[in-house]
User: What shape does this take?
Amino acid sequence: MDFTGRTGKIIMKKTFKDICKLAEKLRSGTGCPWDRAQTIETMLDCLKNETSEVAEAVLKKDYRNLKEELGDVLFQIVMIAQIAKEQKHFKIDDVIKDIDKKIRSRHTWVFGEDKAKTPEEAVAMWKRNKSGEKNR
Ligand code: MG
Assistant: This one.
């Protein structure tokens, strides 16, 4: 969605949905031949490379670069989800729904009745909740 800022300049506000549409466009018939040729497997190298660049930026405390590299990782994830959607495996909305459910169900001291006052108690409960998922 675009809007006009205080200076009268048009501000392009981008959303997660815009990034998903960007990936869809790149993969489309009017998109990019390289992007169209990618598979989930070939995207794995891109994801690994971008993840390494995130780690490098963190270790250097280069936060300007970290912002860029997190965007690169995010876009790799969106591209992999786009390919998965085309192959009818799942949609990015399913990824979001599942991680939201997982994070909430593992943080029972935030979203449930448990109490955790220290990081150690939180980790112990996280592990308990995680192993409970596997036994279900
Ligand atoms: Mg990068």
